[in-house]
Specification:
This protein has 5 helices and 7 strands. The protein has 183 residues and is of the alpha/beta class. The protein is globular, with a radius of gyration of 16 Å.
């Protein structure tokens, strides 16, 4: 059974990207031989990254929870909304706490926008980050436009459904191939 962790990279009130996170997890869980779990970063409040050891016990506990989730999964799907021309700052800050956990980890990138361009700038940063930390970046990426229309009967929702199905199927296949190659 392939275990994929879907990371919700937004912690804002009223966030729309959680719709994409939920849908991706649902699609993965509907596949044979795959299980998705959601890691919602809104449940954590890590301070700005610092290599120092002067972290509170609460922060240390949160870091350990996230680290364990990253280590036990076979693959990661990171979902970032586009904020101010890039990935969510809170997501980038959280990802910075971990480095060895990404090495040779299958990594699927999803960017989300309420506009029509699907968060292209956030996607560029996700791709750069995955390369920098030696993750195995899946070639297929998912740009989600008009995220507020997910679940509605609209043209954008139909396009998302089709693209998300392909992305999730590819992520499962990609993760299985990388896991098999590491043995």
């Amino acid at each position: 059974m392939i275990h994929i962790l879907v990371v919700s990279g937004s912690n804002r009130n009223g966030r729309q990207s959680i719709k994409a996170v939920d849908q991706i997890a649902e699609i993965i869980n509907a596949q044979d031989g795959a299980r998705a779990e959601i890691l919602d970063l809104a449940n954590f409040r890590l301070p700005p990254f610092d290599d120092g050891d002067q972290r509170s016990e609460e922060v240390k506990a949160d870091i350990e929870i996230i680290r364990n989730q990253f280590q036990k999964c076979d693959g990661l799907v990171i979902v970032s909304p586009e904020y101010n021309g890039g990935m969510a700052g809170s997501l980038k800050n959280t990802l910075d706490y971990f480095r060895p956990e990404y090495s040779w980890k299958p990594f699927g990138a999803v960017s989300v926008s309420s506009g029509t361009l699907g968060g292209q700038n956030a996607m560029h940063q996700l791709v750069q980050f995955a390369s920098y930390v030696n993750a195995c970046l899946m070639p297929n990426r998912l740009l989600v436009s008009k995220v507020n229309e997910i679940g509605l009967q609209t043209e954008f929702a139909e396009v998302f459904d089709k693209n998300a199905q392909k992305f999730c199927t590819d992520m499962i296949r990609f993760t299985k191939a990388i896991v098999a190659a590491k043995v």
